[in-house]
Write a structure and sequence with these properties.
alpha+beta; 4-stranded antiparallel sheet; 115 residues
Length: 115
């Protein structure tokens, strides 16, 4: 079964290099382990939430566009990793490793339909 590991990132600039560089080394090590286990399906980092555009179909059929994320908050999804795992426990184990590597919370969500 496929699971999405959403990286919950605080708004604001990235940490300074002396803090970010060790985190990224840990993330690359996590990704190598995930790949070696055959569990990596896909991953991506996202542009800041401020770069997003919301598209909403209205009842009259018109489409409304709005800048920025739909929900106001101090956190947003900063990236995601799609993993293949036998069950939720397996996905949670990968999420724990990713959270330790990236030092941010991870939301785990099963893929309900598709790919």
């Amino acid at each position: 079964m496929k699971y999405v590991l959403n990286i919950i990132q605080p708004d604001g600039p990235p940490p300074p290099p002396e803090r970010l560089d060790p985190i990224m080394r840990n993330v690359y090590a996590f990704m190598a382990e995930l790949e070696a286990a055959g569990a990596r399906v896909w991953n991506a980092g996202l542009a800041p939430a401020s770069a997003s555009t919301m598209v909403r179909a209205k009842p009259d059929g018109e489409v409304e566009l709005a800048d920025g994320p739909y929900a106001e908050g101090k956190e947003h999804i900063g990236g995601l990793v799609v993993v293949e795992a036998a069950d939720l426990d397996g996905a949670l184990a990968w999420a724990g490793k990713l959270s330790r590597a990236i030092t941010l919370p991870i939301e785990v969500r099963p893929v309900a339909h598709g790919g």
